[in-house]
Amino acid sequence: MKRTALLPLNKVALLLGSALMAPNAFASLTPTILSFEESSIPTWINSDVTAVSFSTKRAILGDQSLLWQWNAGEKLVISKTFTRYTDTEARALYGSSATQIISFWLYNETPSASPATLTLANPEGAYPRTTTINLNFTGWRNVTLSLNNDFASSVPNKFGQIMLSAPNSGSGKLYIDRIMVSIDDSRYQWSDDQITTRYPVEEINFDLPVNLPAPTSAELAAIEQIKTRLMKKLGTGSANISSLESKFNSFNIIKRADGTITGRHLITDPQQTPYQPNHLSAQDKADYNEYALLGEGDKYNSKITGYAQLMLNLGKAYHNPLANKDRIAEMYTLMTEHMFDQGFVDGSALGTTHHWGYSGRWWYLSALLMEEPLRQAGLLDETYKALLWFSREFRDRGFEMNVTPSSTDMDFFNTLSQQNLAMILLNPDEREKVALLHKYADFLSATIDRNPPGYNDGFRPDGTAWRHKGHYPGYAFPALTSIGDLAYLMKGDEFGFQTGALDTIKKAMISAWIYTNPTVPLGIAGRHPFTDLSVNSSFAESMKNIALSYPRVDKELASIYLTITQQSAAQSVAIFGESITPAALPEGSWTFNGGAFAVHRVGDRMAIFKGYNQDVWSSEIYTNDNRYGRYQSHGSVHVLPHGDPVTHGYKQEGWDWNRNPGTTTIHLPIDELESPRSSTLMVRSDAGLSGATSLENQYTLFSFKHKAPQNLDRFEPSFEMNKHALGSEKFIYLTGNNIRNLDGSHRTETTLFQLAIRSGKGVNINGVSYTGSTLNTTLQSGDWIIDDNHVGYYLVNTDPVKVYRGGQTSKHNKTKAVTSGNFSSAWIDHGVAPNNKQYEYIMVMETTPQEMAQLASAFKAQPRFVTLQSDELRQVVKDTSSNLFGYTNFAESTFNQGYITHVDKPSQTLLRVDALQQKMVLSGSSLELNYQKDVDNQVLPDLTTGPAPVSITYTIKGKWQLSAGEAQVVASDNETMVTLSSDFAMPQEVTLTTTSLPLIPLEPSIPAQPVEPEVPEEPTSPSSSGGSGGSTSPLLVFGLGLLGLLRRQH
């Protein structure tokens, strides 16, 4: 399209320089672009001998490019003045690591053996900075160079000449377009066959033997079977290709009679960064929006997307016997030729192809589907070489197929692992193909079946799956889905996964089934709160594929698959070849200290406890994601019914980001709550600890010791607290202490619940139901409340609890748009600047008013849960109904309650004593993952192994012997030393027996009577349901009797 003439470059430079000095970053991030759309050559373009002209034959941005018909030794000079920013200034503008670049496009019609030279100098031609540009190519190529880092010395602060010097021999034509000076991500200036930057070219080397054996018939048959499975998985498209024709036409691809190809300029999503699209001028933005994206995603939502997806869809349609194969092949080959012309070829970096898998993944699979048309068009070899070249971003994370510290990469598994298989199948050399498949199979088994070193991606022994240096379902689920499919595609004696790798995948998948219900909860959602990510659909299909990838069907995975997909034992025969009973929803307790969380499940309800510590981050906040998510892991305790979270009241519109369930927070105005960084923030705690242990798959003890960041804007550095939760049956005993901070302007709160108000749902307070849309009241210790999801809360000893039903406004976590909704909430109000505040309450995961009334009455007579000892570094709690003790020590500690008198390392411990059988079951886990750190508490970057196990030594009253589990036990007359090994902070469980139970102190007598429950005044008309009547439950009577028996035995 034609545009008006550009703003004179000296004025643009002046505006940019002024903006840099001003606090307004908007103007400073606006790129300076030369697009050659004028009607005549401006005076600032100079050629010393040959003519230059504008050409409409080829263009990148707009309709024209600058054509330079050069002869040996001639020069083309663009005289404009630009201001160079330092990397520090660029980072300040961009918000994360950035650099200022010069970037432009060259089209070469005839390769030249001699290079051209690029020189940047000041307006007088002094202080020249030079680099060479190889012209050994045809088609478009991108040149992108950091002004500070990719020349021998930094470009002058005011550079006023951009000079191209022709090769020293020969002649030719160069089309030049879209010269741009802008701010780019500092990772995005890659070397290739044309230019050399500070980042070396890293091409893939398969390192195969020179002499490869001839393939066996079994190997060749296995390859054909793999290919058949993959083609079947990809499926067949519709014979009606009208929608494909329409999509193809949108890319405007035309091949003229002279062979010239034109079409929309094709880029990947990361290649948008240097354009800074939100800061482009209107005229540049209009032309820029004519671009097309190779992948499906456009973070700016302004351009046509899905180029590679169309290629895949064409490939699928090609295999429909009723389709017009000639037309499909014509469109596909034109798209391929356009890609090659645009520079998507071997040896071309295009500036960067960072995050290549998200853009290019469907190209690989489409090429396998269209192998024959590509061969007939003479494009197959070039396609294979291009795919191999662009795979180099993951060279040491998958494509070279060597196990490295970073080779268990979730992005590789998700976006490129099946693509690598397709690429291997495209290899024209049968010997290489077989050798590469063997190498790939060995690599996959080895890299999956390990605990990767440091914070690298991978599958941890506790079932967590890491990406971005932490447990991350948002990346792990797609990776597991792809791996599950890949394992099934490659299964068999020749190229199948080893059993150890299958077991690792199985562990991660079953763990996902445990910590979802079936959707990923808020605490572990990463930067995508209110995600709809779940174990349904494609994840479940991959569970099935892993079950079928074992030598014999894995019945555990198969049964879970049947439950998720709601299929019966009768239907299982057709799927698995035998009758398999669908699994029940998981019930029990599990610890996932690799993510600083624990799960306690009863019936169809899941409670998740979430913290963070020195190794596990609190939340992931990006420039446009999770902007208000700092409290995601603030000791949250969240009970979720099974099913769609939205139907259970979890919706973003109006959500108060200060009040995630169970968290203790300083309640901030929304703009103060927003992350202080415009880019990534992933807070860890140098001083805090958080972790859990589980016992007998029935009980969970979770603790979170919080100390706020000390040097982070908008974070109150004095904020500290300890939080604990004990899960037993359907009850959760929650305590908090040492809650303190110096913020005198904002109230500190512990949230009980926050749920969107739904029709017919309400709360019940001390037996009175409230279903109206408004309520504002206060509860005291001794009161109880049931929330809209039938979760009960009995307030044992708390500050005043505020209950609110009504409207509230918030902001969207990504767009920051104002949102609103009607919510039902309750929170403990600790006031401003709390000093060593505490709380104690009980949650009942699903309850009725009658049961809550019984609980309140029974608790006043004889508390089921008691805190025996508590201070800043330790706590002892007890569930009297099961003689269960929970010990938390944040440092080496002595105890004066229960059976344990000393623990030598920070740990979580649960023990249950069976007085009748004279046995103790004990579970202990480290509160530290035990990564090796440097003096700045940073994990060592060159680790080659995972963290070492932590030995925990307990001193226990009495003389005990080991009867089950692994531990070192040394007993004396009146005490026993028990040493456990906690690997990756996983619980280690042992059973001890004795011939004589030791005497232990009686727990404190019944605490001071709580305030008698008062029915709050209802501002609106309450409904008539519930009541506080009823008798004590038989279970409680039995528990009290057993408690008396235990006391007498002690």
From TrEMBL:
| Keyword terms of this UniProt record | Calcium, Lyase, Metal-binding, Plasmid, Signal
> Which BP terms from GO are recorded?
carbohydrate metabolic process; glycosaminoglycan catabolic process
Q: Where is this region: Disordered?
A: 1001-1033
Task: Give residue spans, biased composition: Low complexity.
Answer: 1018-1033
- Annotated Lyase catalytic domain ranges read 212-568
Which segment of the chain is annotated as a signal peptide?
1-27
Q: Which GO molecular function annotation, any one, does this entry have?
A: metal ion binding
**Which residues act catalytically here?**
H355, H468, Y475
Q: Where is the Lyase N-terminal domain?
A: 32-196
Sites binding Ca(2+) sit at S35, E37, D177
Domain spans labelled Polysaccharide lyase family 8 central: 592-844
Q: Name one Pfam family in it.
A: Lyase_8
Please provide, in alphabetical order, the Gene Ontology terms of the cellular component aspect for this entry: extracellular region
In its keyword annotation, does this UniProt entry include Ribosomal protein? no
Q: Which family would the database say this protein is a member of?
A: Belongs to the polysaccharide lyase 8 family.
Protein name, UniProt field: Chondroitin ABC lyase
